[in-house]
Amino acid sequence: MVKQLLSKSKAKLLAQDIGGKSGRTMCMDSATGVVTVKTSGSEPQVLAKLMS
């Protein structure tokens, strides 16, 4: 469902981070539209770029 909503809004989904038992923190930079997620014990990963 989320993928469909992103597609309709023309958001570019670059990756996904699902499953497992680790906690995650998601951040969106309102100036750039970049959405990142950080899983416990790993580096942040860019998930989407909401503005071109």
Task: List low-confidence stretches.
Answer: none
Largest sheet composition: 4 strands, antiparallel
Number of domains: 1
Number of helices: 1
Mean pLDDT: 85
Measured between the Cα atoms of the first and last residue, the distance is 23 Å
> Radius of gyration from the CA trace?
12 Å
The share of residues in helices is 10-25%
Pairing-aware structural class of the strands and helices? mainly beta
* Count of individual beta strands: 4
Shape: flat
Beta-strand percent range: 25-35%
**What is the topology, as strand order, of the major beta sheet?**
1-4-3-2
Order of helices and strands: HEEEE
Describe the structure.
By secondary structure, the protein is mainly beta. The protein has one domain. The protein has one helix at residues 2-8; strands at residues 12-13, 24-28, 34-39, 45-49. The protein has a 4-stranded antiparallel β-sheet, covered by helices on one side. Strand 3 (34-39) and strand 4 form a beta hairpin. The radius of gyration is 12 Å and the shape is flat. The two termini are 23 Å apart. 4% of the residues are buried. The mean pLDDT is 85.
Question: Layout of helices and strands, plus pairs?
Answer:
Blueprint (H helix, E strand, L loop, with lengths): L1 H7 L3 E2 L10 E5 L5 E6 L5 E5 L3
Antiparallel strand pairs: 1-4, 2-3, 3-4
